[in-house]
Amino acid sequence: MSWLFFAVATALLWGTAELFYKKGARPEEKYSHLKICIWVGIIMGLHAVFTLLTQDIAYDPINLLVYLPVSLMYIVSMAFSYFGMRFLEESISDPIENTAGVICVLLFAIVMGDTYSALTWISVAVIGVGVVGVGILENRGETVRKKTLGKKLAVIAFCMPFVYALLDAFGTFLDDAYFLVEDIAATPLVNVTEETIEAVANTSYELTFALFALGLYIFMRAKGVKFGPVFARNEKGRMGLEQKHGDKILAGLFETAGQFTYVYALGSNDAVAAPIISSVCVVSLLLSRIILKEKLSWKTYLFIAIVIIGILLLAVSEEL
Question: Model pTM?
Fold first, then answer.
């Protein structure tokens, strides 16, 4: 039952990562979303180097360019997500971001001509009802976001989870349709086997994220933005991580650890593991309510629950 341990661990790790993403995306810190990108890039880059040093995957650097379209979809989607988190409750943003699976279903149905079960389409409809409900409540003033942020920024913030879902879905679509295909001979990736293709793709993604982080750091320094001290003394005079950076670093660590357990969770019993992993939004919702003390109207929670139910149904239907 090791797959069960890894499936539960993945949901807990990624749910906790969302918590620290939210804590690190401080609204008063103008470039906090870019700083999160930098830290995630650093951690993923280190993990990529570790993979190259410890696993014999015969990595060809040309795969950085080959896999670049997918990597950029994932990376840019995360940057938009971090920006939205500065102003939007995690209880709202995470369930919406997890609707990327719906967009994937539509892409495969429209572009690839795939057919799906009735349960899949029911799931899509349930998620659609939930998302529309949340959107209506947002625009009818069920929250005070428009008053505190202004109408323009409030609308932009609410759009960010949808932008994430769209870009992440396109990245997943490209991944499944053109790169991580069962027929290894058909993949554009170079010098890969059935055993190494996922590791090569993930390493390419992580290295690209590291380069992206370097570019962001150079951009921030060019604009005169201070990155801030990484270590600082606490009230007792002990040296430790400065909290603003600490939250961002922890988010990156939990994100990368979740990627590690994810591979093992789907390795032997993905039909059951996938729905468990999809419950990450449930973990995120509970943590945001308990730790961040987020409070939404009961109507908003109702529609969020509908979205989560739809996501879990979709995960089950895809594995039947």
Answer: 0.86
The percentage of residues in the chain with a pLDDT greater than 90, rounded to a whole number, is: 32
Bridge partners of 233?
239
Residue range 115-155, pLDDT digits in tens: 888 888 888 888 888 888 877 776 665 456 666 777 788 88
DSSP element (H, E) containing 315? helix 298-319
- Whole-number Å distance between alpha carbons of 14 and 158: 22
d(CA 318, CA 313): 9
| Rounded Cα distance, 256 and 180, in Å | 20
Residue 208 and residue 64 in contact, taking contact as beta carbons nearer than 8 Å: yes
Q: Report domain extents, the chain.
A: 2-319
Query: What's the pLDDT band for 270 if we cut at 50, 70, 90?
Result: low
Q: Contacts for 145-154 with beta carbons within 8 Å, 24 or more apart? A: 145/87, 145/88, 149/87, 153/87, 154/87
